Amino acid sequence: MKNESSKNQMKDSLEILSKIRRAEIAEDVFEKISDKIRDRQNNRIQPIWIRVAAAAFIGLLLMEQYIILKPQAQIASNPIELLLPVSTNSLYHE
Amino acid sequence: MTFSELYQAYKNTVYNLALQYVGNREDAEEITQDVFVKVHENLNRFRKDSDWRTWIYRISINHSLDFLKAKKRQKRSILSQILRLDNPDTRFEIPHFNHPGVELEQKETIAFILNCLNHLPDNQRTVIILLKIENLPQPEVAKIMKTSSKAVESLFHRAKKNLEKLLNGSEGK
What we know:
The complex is a heterodimer of chains A (94) and B (173).
Chain A lengths: L1 H17 L10 H15 L3 H22 L3 H5 L2 H5 L11
Chain B lengths: L2 H20 L2 H18 L9 H24 L2 H6 L4 H4 L15 H11 L4 H12 L4 H7 L4 H24 L1
Helix pairs in contact in B: 1-2, 1-3, 2-3, 7-9, 8-9
């Protein structure tokens, strides 16, 4: 009996839901959408600037790699470096 | 189809669908705006072999569900987490029910049913909204939900059972 009544109640609930009327959207929504689209386009970074930033970053990485892996001979051949005193880091001379 | 033609053709479809999920005019308008911004952004990527209506329905459903999830997350501040911990009744309530398609005398009943609907899993809620409120035919619902007609039927059956439990459970409290 209880089962039957809850089934009826369920049927009623679904019927009530199907009676919800269609609503009309406000007229000014299209303008708001256009504004949002315009804002997004203005805030978007141009692809050319993304490429420039990427190229600069890769350039920096390559330069760092070059400095780190520079051959010792090349360093020694630098005349300024030859003038610098070389520390042996030893405290006592034997 | 141009963007403004698409808007004119589907503005009320998107708005009404969003209304069934969120239950108030302001949020439904916000969802409609975001859906059409998304449509505008993806217009060029749209595959010509699928139809606009199904595509727009899918975007609207996904966006409405995401919107509700974001709102829920917003609500769960540290304080409310402590105060409302595991209280399912307060977790899913529609904050201010303001559905322009609902008659005043049925407002309370429909708000209650939609609140119960919000306790159902996403796909069960969607199947009831599409079949019973939007009155779409079963094959179209299957197409929108990317499943078979048979799966929609069994999903609807499960959704009905769960909703029935929720309606009875809430009434008994």
